Amino acid sequence: MSLSNSQKRYLRGLGHRLKPVVTVADKGLTETVAAEIETALDRHELIKIKLRQPRERRTDAMRRIVELTGAELVHSIGQVACYYRPNPKQPKIALPR
User: Fold this and answer.
1) Is the pTM of this model over 0.90?
2) In Å, how far are 34, 57, 62, 92, 95 from 28, measured between CA atoms?
3) Residue-level pLDDT at 2
4) Tens digits of per-residue pLDDT, 21-47?
5) Burial class (CB in 10 A: 0-12, 13-18, 19+), 79
6) Using CB atoms within 10 A as the burial measure, which of 19, 35, 44, 48 is most buried?
7) Phi, psi of 73 (to 5 degrees)
8) What is the CATH number of domain 5-84?
9) SS3 of 22, please?
């Protein structure tokens, strides 16, 4: 899945008001945390994740989340990253073309 710039801009606008639903802390991206991210993506499609790690580990964790979930990284600022993955059964967000 690849998002266009206008779609990312639209999702950034929607994500602005969101609060982080998952926090990746000292232990990193464990199986339990990955399962929570999967559940949150299925339920909400667009989520924010707080990454409480040093910068190097944070970047690796952001890439790993994309690999594990198939979600698209919409944007990241500091310790917060926003991800989008459409729900194939019950889509909630209609993206512009």
Assistant:
1) yes
2) 10, 8, 11, 29, 31
3) 86
4) 999 998 989 999 999 999 999 999 999
5) middle
6) 48
7) -75, 115
8) 3.30.110.60
9) strand
